[in-house]
Amino acid sequence: MSFSLLRTTPALRAALRAGAARPVAALSGTSFARGQATLPDLPYDYNALEPYISAKIMELHHSKHHQTYVNGFNTALQAIAEAESKGDLTKAAAQAPLINFHGGGHVNHSLFWENLAPSSRDGGGEPSGALRSAIDEDFGSFDALRKEINAALTGIQGSGWAWLVKDKTTGTLSVVTRANQDPVTGNLAPLLGIDAWEHAYYLQYENRKAEYFDAIWNVLNWKTVAQRFEK
């Protein structure tokens, strides 16, 4: 998928002006094949994150929920292409909410899977090197970062995400939240995202979402976070 070409078309520009620019701008590292978004393979088995995240949750989350975002995003892109062929900018602009929701869902989950790893491999523990130094400088300690992220997750009303982000200009780290599937874009680079949607935990933790927020730290992959930080 060449978004540089898509951005030059009148129909897509109309959709972006209507509010679809955020996920499109975030899709540079997301998987595409033959002009369509594709579901990325996981770098581990569905049961690899147990007991912290069950195999059933991982299977449903990846193969059903993420696939739904991929399908919805592709459908919206197809509708924009059809509208462009007919010169119907109004129809193209009407796809903006779907591009934002499904495109954002694809972006966020693609990054989320890379954020995780089995505790027997790269999951859990604490970051080191330049990332750890930046965490200590901007949050005071790793424990303080963990508390701030968990508080942000707990404070989300409904569905959304909490993110550790880096300011692209200053390099400063901070924690932000996004509602629903809104991706992190603009001058903030997403380093670590934690999914606070019920589909990420309810099958195992039911209404005890705070337990999920604590448990997921055992399978966070700080190596991938550090790689994003150092870019």
Shape: globular
Biggest β-sheet: count, sense, barrel?
3 strands, antiparallel
Count of distinct strands: 5
Structural class: mainly alpha
Tally of discrete structural domains:
1
Kindly summarize this structure in a few lines.
This protein is mainly alpha-helical. Helix content is 52%, strand content 12%.
Task: Tell me the layout of helices and strands.
Layout: H1 3-6, H2 10-25, E1 32-33, E2 36-37, H3 55-86, H4 89-93, H5 96-115, H6 129-139, H7 142-154, E3 160-167, E4 173-179, E5 188-195, H8 202-205, H9 209-215, H10 222-229
Antiparallel strand pairs: 1-2, 3-4, 3-5
Helix pairs in contact: 2-3, 2-5, 3-5
Structure description:
This protein is mainly alpha-helical. It has a single domain (52-230), classed as Iron/manganese superoxide dismutase, C-terminal domain (minor pseudopilin epsh fold, 3-Layer(bab) Sandwich), CATH 3.55.40. It is 52% helix and 12% strand. It is built from ten helices and five strands. The chain has helices at residues 3-6, 10-25, 55-86, 89-93, 96-115, 129-139, 142-154, 202-205, 209-215, 222-229, and strands at residues 32-33, 36-37, 160-167, 173-179, 188-195. It has a three-stranded antiparallel β-sheet with strand order 4-3-5. Helix 2 packs parallel to helix 5. It starts with a helix and ends with a helix. The model is unreliable at 1-8 (pLDDT under 50). Its EC number is 1.15.1.1. Its cofactor is Mn(2+). Residues 127-228 form the Manganese/iron superoxide dismutase C-terminal domain. Destroys radicals which are normally produced within the cells and which are toxic to biological systems.
